[in-house]
Protein: AraC family transcriptional regulator
Organism: Tistrella mobilis
Amino acid sequence: MPSLPLPFVGALLLAILCARLVAGSEPGRRITPPLVFVAACTLDLIVVGLRWSTDLAAIRALQPVVAATLPPLAWLCFARLTRPRRRALWPHLLPVALVAVLSGIWTLWKAPIDGVLAAVFLGYAAALLRLAARGPDALAAARLDDAPKAIRSIRLVGLVLASFALVDLAIAVDVALSAGRHAALIVAAANLIALPAGAWAIATTGLAPPQQPAVPTEPPQAKTAQDDEPPADEDDLAEDQAIIDRLDALMQDRAPYRDPDLTLDRLARRLGLPARRLSAAVNRRLNRNVSQLVNDHRVAEACRLLSTTDAPVTRIMFDAGFQTKSNFNREFRRVTGTTPSAWRRDRRGAGARTP
C-alpha cells in the first residue's frame, strides 16, 4: 500500500494554515508577508517530499533555492514592525540569487551550497535574535498589545533559523563522510519539525501594523536636532523627566491608552518626539518599556470601571484598550496581583463592610 511521505503531510497542514490566513485577512490585504512566508514553507516541504521520494535532478537543484528564500521572508515579516516606512527589498534577494547560481553550476563545480545556506540562515537568525533582545519598544509600528508576543515569536523564529544552519552544516559533514547518503533524511526531518513551528509563530503573532490615521490626532511639536538621537549624557535625567511629565499629562488629558491600535510611533508623534527618544526616556527614567507603561494606565482604567460600573469584565477590557483576554488578565495580575473578577469582588466586599 503506497504511503504519503511525511513532508507532504506537513505541507498539507501548512496549506490549511495558508487558507485560514487568507480567510481571516482584511479585504484588499489578502497577500501579506506572513502569508507569503507560510506559503514558502509549504512549497519547501513539498520540494523536500519530492526530493525524498523521487530524487530528480531538477528537484535537487530547486531545493536549496526555495530554502534560501525562508530567512529573508522571515526577517521581512518582522522588520516592517520596526518602522512604518518602506524598506528596500533587493538586498534580501542577493542570498537567494547566490544560492540559485551555485545550484545551477553544481554539476560543473561542487559549489559550497550547504556552507552558503548555513551562513544565510545564521546571519538572519542573528539579526532576529538581536532585534528580540531590544525588547517590545523596538517594534515601534506594532500595536503595543501585540509587541510582547511578537518579540517572543521573533526569538522563536530566530532559533528555528539557527537550527537550520546547524542542519546545513550536518549535511555538509554527511556529504564529506558518506557522499550525502543521509542528507535527504536529515533535511526532511529538520523541515518537518522546525518549519511548522516557525510558520505557526509568524502566522499567529498578529503582525499586521494598524492602519495609520488619516489625520494626526494632535499637531506635533517642532523637533530639535537633539530629538534625532538620545542625549549625549545619559546621566542627565532632567530632559527625560520632562518627557515623562508630558507623557503623563497626555495620558490624563487624552487617554490615548484606550486606543487598541496604539503604537509606539503614534504615541511618540502625539508628543512630537522620535519613537526611540520616547522609549529611551521611559526606559531610563521608569525602568520599564512603553508597552508596560501604557498597560499600567489601561489596568488603572479597568480598575476604575470595575469599581464604579456593573459592566461585564469583557466590556471593561475593551473600554480600557486591551484587545485579548489573555493579555488583559496577564497585565492585570502583573499590576494588581489578582484577577479582574476577584479585584471587583474584593472592592465591593470592602465597600459593604465600610460603616
Observations:
- The radius of gyration is 25 Å.
- Residues 125 and 158 are 4 Å apart (CA to CA).
